[in-house]
Amino acid sequence: MSVLGIDQITYGADDLPACRQFFQDWGLSLVSEAADELVFECLNGCKVVVAAWDKPGLPPAMEEGPTLREVVWGVESDADLDRYAAAIAQDPAFTDTTVDGARRIGCTDPNGLAVRLQVSRKRAVEVDCGAMNTWNAKPRVNQPAPIYERATPIEVGHVVFFVSDVKGTSAFYAQRFGFVSSDGYPNRGAFMRCAPEGGHHDLFLLQIPSGKRGLNHVAFTVRDIHEVFGGGLHFSRCGWDTQLGPGRHPVSSAYFWYFKNPAGGLIEYYADEDQLTADWQPREFEPGPTVFAEWAVDGGLDGHTRRQKNAEGPKGAFLTEKK
């Protein structure tokens, strides 16, 4: 029994028209729309809901302003759902309801976030990905690597929160839902994955000196490094602001590109994270700029010139062309 991953996230936001354009530019499909709620889907059916911040029934916010209000995690079966329900039945704000014809249970985590579980509604998808030729292995033969005009995210891969008590919050996810440690910052950060075997992290909890609680970012999985670049360039051409990237994380090995998000926090394209098993031994890192990013472009790349923001674009057909 283990959690499979994120099935749905729900934001509470104050500018739904801006969010509508933002998530469509991001590459999600708008599947339903009402005056107080937008529902988007990733390629595998993972849902992103953007609700008006004051919509009735929306879980309370853990911070002021637009932010994530709920994370729904998927499980494999009704029997799994029963076992998790027994594990959290005594927790504050325990819920056991029916949503869109399916059972959904949940509670509130120590950080004030609504946590829910349901039998996963995500669907299996087959996508073509760019193979990487290395010195030892060259799987891409007589075939150029892909170039993407924009991204089409496969799913919500992980969520990251500022927490006031990283030890207590990470223990909550480990004890209630079976999450396991991947890596960490001593007394400061916890990278956790849903199951012993899987991607480097589905959840990252970060405690900063101020004790601030809230959303840091939501990360969307794309096919490969080329889609990180193609998606980011398209999003830049649409006029949305980069926070940092593109770049590469040393801790998870993933390539990233972060943008500012009108629904709250930041949003990330990422690909090529480490895959772990139960044999993995968690490591500890002292937080710092070089731990966060092996390399990164400050301010992003311009979608038109393909150069760093505010850098002069090419003038001739060839870089070596002389005036």
UniProtKB/TrEMBL annotation:
Residues 155-272 form the VOC domain. SUPFAM superfamilies: Glyoxalase/Bleomycin resistance protein/Dihydroxybiphenyl dioxygenase. InterPro entries: Glyas_Bleomycin-R_OHBP_Dase, Glyas_Fos-R_dOase_dom, VOC_core. Residues 302-323 are annotated as: Disordered. This is Catechol-2,3-dioxygenase. Residues 302-312 have a biased composition (Basic and acidic residues).
